[in-house]
Structures are given as structure tokens and as C-alpha cells.
Amino acid sequence: MTQPKKKIKPADLSKIQTYSIKKRTSKTKITSFAKPIDCQSPESFFETLPKFLKASDLNQFIQLTYKARMKNKPFQLLLGAHTIKVGLTPVLIDLMKLEIVTGVSFNCAGLIHDMELAFYGGTSEDVQAGLADGSFGMVKETAQMFSEIVLLASHEKIGLGEAGGKYINDRKAKHRELSIFAQADKLGCPATIHVGIGTDTIAQHDNYDAAKIGEASHIDFRIMATICKDINRGGVLANIGSAVLLPEIFLKALTVARNLSKGKNALTTANFDMITHYRPSENILNRPTKDAGNGFNFVGHHEIMIPLLAWGLKQKFLTA
After folding, report:
1. Domain range 53-319, its CATH number among 3.40.50.300, 3.40.910.10, 2.60.40.420, 3.40.630.30
2. Per residue in 219-265, pLDDT tens?
3. 3-class SS at 295?
4. Which of 194, 204, 299, 189 shows the shortest CA–CA distance to 248?
5. pLDDT at 101
6. pTM, rounded to two decimals
7. Nearest Cα to 198, choosing from 141, 245, 140, 130?
8. What secondary structure letter does DSSP report for 37?
């Protein structure tokens, strides 16, 4: 049976209880405001940032990285090949030379692009046009050079990343000073390559030796597991532009490290990408750092964010 509707009375605000702002805890304070940027002293830029949200996170991540390196703990970068294609190699090499970055890991496309740039000064093709006529990825020189790198890795029983750098240096590639793998080889900085069979253009060629490639890439996985032992004891890792492969590699390598080396887990991680993806969120930021450290997520274009990160790191390391 329908009940007669009661008229709802507005709340009587004259009866509410108030208290003084002097007793309230305020989340925003003027002491945390940004400062005008002094163009005459650009090295102070990071001190001008507001102490809120991602600006605060970025400064904290830089500080944690600095503390880790001062204790001789690693700062490892997981890098999508896009970082090479947008011209960031000189920035990354600089951080390696300063011993701020202690190691780099790429998917297979990273070595392909780096190798083409080292020998020919150019890389990256028009996929849409090449796909239409079946010419995409069919450059013979790239496939031949990669095949020779794989043979070198197999002959010397070394990882694919190390073989790539050694190959570029041994053949005195014209632009080897701008090759991240060649410079890693020169500096004695570990560089690893993690291959997904069939994900790269070289798999389209008849000189692609999947067995030898897999063997060399697995050596790099084991090297990554060893690096993860030190990362897991106070080190830092940043994933920059890999949405699937490298976050999965890291999770498995970290599992091996924790299986082989028992003790307290402690690490700092960060993810830099243009959008937020599931696997970096889980495998870089959340799962590894649970009860073990901090994970930071930064969204933005690599060609802006990575030079910004490098600026902050260099300022911290060179002026501290």
C-alpha cells in the first residue's frame, strides 16, 4: 500500500559545529609552493618545483637514486627501443659515463635500431608503406649484421647485448660514439637484450637462427638475474617505455635473485611512459616493492621526461 510522502526538511545549518582553522591540518601550505624559475641559474630548477604530487615524487626518486649510488648500489634502466628512435642515446650514454646509470636492458628492437644508427646514421622505416608492398623489415644489411652478432655471441658464449657492443666497436662503425651498446662495451657497463621470437623484423629473414638467438638472450636473462640481486638490496630500477616484455623479464629475474639470495628485500622502482599500462604498474611498481620499498609512476613523452630526469640526476650528483 502506498504511504503518503513526507515533505523532507532542509538541514538546519545553524546547529552545525565549527572549529578554528588554526586547529586544522592543511594539506597545502605556502611553504610548499613553486618558486619563479631563475633563467640565470637553471641548475636550481628542481628546487623551484612545488612540493606536491609528481613534482615531489620526481625529486624524491632522484634523491633515492643518489643515495643508492652513494652506497654503490645499481641503477638499472629497462628501455624500450622508442628511446633510441627519439634521439635519447646521447643522454643515456652521458649518465653511463658519469656512473649514474650502471646498466641497461632492451628488447631486441633496441639493438636493431642502435646498430643501424651506428653503421648508417639512420633507422626506423615507414611501416605502413612497407607493409603494403611487403618490403617492411626486408633490409638485407640489418639482417646480415644481426646474424653476425648472434654468431659472435655463440662463439664467445656471451650475451646478445655484449656481443652487439663488441661487434659495433670491432668493426669501427662510423657513429659508434653514439651507440649505447658500443659505449656500454667500452665502459664495461652491462647491456642486456631480451628477445621475443617473431617480434622483430630480423625474424623475417632466412639467416635468423632462433636457437642461437634464444641461447644468447637467455645468458642476458641470467645476467639480469644477477644484477637483480644487488637491485634487491637497496638498488634502483627504472622502466622507460616497455609496456610488456621488460616488466615481465624483470619480474622473473627478480624472482630468481630472491630465490638464490635470501634476506630483506629493499629497492626503489620507477616507470616512465606516455600512458599507464597494466604490467609496468604491477611488475615494476607494485609487486616488487610490496613491503620492500617505493614505486613511482611518471606519465609523459620520453623525449621530454628523460632529459628532465637526467638533468635532475646530474644536478644532484655533480653539486651534492
Report:
1. 3.40.910.10
2. 999 999 999 999 999 999 999 999 999 999 999 999 999 999 999 99
3. strand
4. 194
5. 98
6. 0.91
7. 245
8. -
Where exactly are the structural domains of the chain?
A: 53-319
Q: How do residues 68-86 score in pLDDT, each as one tens digit?
A: 999 999 999 999 999 999 9
If we measure between CA atoms, which residue out of 241, 227, 235 comes closest to residue 276?
241
- E strands along the chain, which residues? 75-79, 103-107, 191-194, 233-240, 266-273, 293-299
Which of 180, 210, 213, 21 is closest to 104 using CA atoms?
180
**Burial class of residue 169 (count of CB atoms within 10 Å of its CB; 0-12, 13-18, 19+):** middle
Among 70, 39, 59, 176, CA closest to 116: 176
Q: What is the pLDDT of residue 1?
A: 57
> Measuring CA to CA, which residue among 146, 155, 230 is closest to residue 193?
146
DSSP secondary structure code for residue 194 in this structure: E
CA dihedral 183, 305, 317, 100 (to 10 degrees): -30
Distance in angstroms (rounded) separating the CA atoms of residues 170 and 151 = 14
Distance CA 293, CA 24 (A): 31
Whole-angstrom Cα distance, residue 115 to residue 182? 9
The answer to whether residues 283 and 295 touch, using CB atoms and an 8 Å cutoff, is no
